[in-house]
Amino acid sequence: MPTNNRRTLEALIGKLPRPKKIAYTRIGSFSDDELTYEKIEYLPLDEPVRAYIVRPRNKSKRRLPVVYCHHQHNHQFFLGKREVIGRGGDPKQAYACALARKGYLTFAPDARCFEERMIPGLKEERAEVFEFARLLWEGKSLQWQLLADIKNGISCISSIPDADASRIGFMGHSLGGQEALFAAAADPRIKVAVSSCGFSSYKAIFEHKIPQNLALYVPSFTNKHDVDFLFRFIAPRPFLIMAGKLDGIFPYEGVLDVFKKGGRIYGKRNVPGNLKLLSFDTGHELSEEMMIEACRWFDSRLKP
Q1: Structural domains of the chain sorted by starting position, each given as residue range(s) with its CATH number in brackets
Q2: Which of 61, 109, 162, 283 could make an SS bond with 246 (beta carbons 3.0 to 4.6 A apart)?
Q3: Please, which residues have CB within 8 angstroms of residue 292's CB and are 6 or more apart in sequence?
Q4: What's this model's pTM, rounded to 2 decimal places?
Q5: Is the pLDDT of residue 219 over 70?
Q6: Alpha-carbon distance 160 to 143, whole Å?
């Protein structure tokens, strides 16, 4: 079986939901001077998921390109989608708003264990550990759950009347940047992706003794491959890596190693320019300069 066949990836991570029509219900809305915010709820399986759709107020009548905005981790389980729409947490994390101001429709749901998907009766960190263990008991992983949620979220996007489902991008910082890598590998409907401070090599993480979010570890995948393996399923689609040279969570030397190996994969597909690494003299953060570069990447590849 070819190594870039998604069945190969599913053999390592688990079978994921197939594209399907997922309707949503509007449960609220508000606006500011530049943007409108629509809160929705959809039911992909047995658990309702809530998300925000953010649009420019003065949008054109044409369908808009979409960016799926995945929130960070930061051990702040009470925050998920609200942070990326600028309604809590770090204002620099409001990339769903920054992209909507550039003319995109942005889609921002909660990941499992965050905000409106926290598990009742369990304290924050314990809930993530519980969910990790429960899924392992079922023969799955927390990464499988995040990917299943993302794939169902992308299916929901196809039901949004003014969304151009043929032009979907994905952006995330930290946990969200990690999921940009895994999700782009798992779902070809993602045409362009941006990862901010989202990963390093497993080797570098363990050499530096850095505890990581539990979704990074998939027993059947992690013991066979490092994360550069995922680029076999992403290439030739454009992927931007933004990394801080002083990042204490995802070591920079591991990012360089992953980029080097990923570059060889893109080189074999004759599109070396579609994988790019931008390095910044920062730590684990999404700076204003990085956000500008992310917008440029999407503008050059998702807009007509």
Answers
A1: 6-302 (3.40.50.1820)
A2: 283
A3: none
A4: 0.96
A5: yes
A6: 26
